[in-house]
TrEMBL record:
<protein>
    <submittedName>
        <fullName>Integrase_H2C2 domain-containing protein</fullName>
    </submittedName>
</protein>
<dbReference type="InterPro" id="IPR008042">
    <property type="entry name" value="Retrotrans_Pao"/>
</dbReference>
<dbReference type="Pfam" id="PF05380">
    <property type="entry name" value="Peptidase_A17"/>
</dbReference>
<feature type="region of interest" description="Disordered">
    <location>
        <begin position="204"/>
        <end position="225"/>
    </location>
</feature>
Amino acid sequence: MDTLTCETKITKRLILAIVQKIFDPIGLLTPATLLPKLLIQHLWKMKIAWDSELSPNDVNVFLKGFRDLYVLKDVTLSRSKARVVPLKPLSIPRLGLMACCIGSRLANSIVNALNLPNLRITFWSDSTIALWWIKEKGNWSVFVENRVKEIRQLTRSHLWKHVPGNLNIADLLSRGCSPRQMLISKWWEGPLWLRESPEYWPLGETPGDSEEVELERKKIKSGKY
C-alpha cells in the first residue's frame, strides 16, 4: 500500500489508483472498500477534475479510511456479493426490493448448480416495504411489478421473513465501515442468531403497511410510471 506524506496531493486520480490496487475480485472486502468508492462517486457528481486537489473535508474522509487499509493484507474470507448503489436516484424501498431480487437469483443459481430442488431456503430482509410488495397482491408500478414477478417465480413468498435492522449484519455492506471495523464485525460469518435453533430466530413477521407501499400503488391508478 502506498505511503502518503504531508506533501502528497490528494486527487480523484490518486484515490482511484489506490482503490484499484486492492485485489478483491469478488467483492469480499466490500464494507471496507465501499467508502472510498462512494467518495469517488461523490467527486464525479461534483464534477471534480482528475488532478484537482480535493477539499479539506473530502481529504479527511479519504484519509480516515486509508490509514487502516493495511490491515486488509492478510484477510481471507469465504465468498460474498454486493453492489454499489447506481448513480440514478432510487428510493430506499426500491433498493431493498432490488436486493431481494438479487438474493433470489443467487439462491436459485446455487440450488440449480448443486441440483437440490427440494432445498428449503429462508429469505431475510430488513425492508418491510419490499416484503409487503413481495407478499401482497396489488397493482404496483412497473419497476416494482417486474421485480416482484421475478422474485415470485424464483421463490415462494411465504419463505420471506423480516429481520430487524439491528440484527441484520449484512447492513454493514450498505453503510460501509473502516477496515478495522470490518474485521471486528466478521460480517462474513453471518448473524450470531442464525446459528441457533429456529425458535431463537427473529419472529419474521412483516410489520404493518406504510405510505411508501401505497405510493407505488397510486402511480398505477394515476397512470404515472
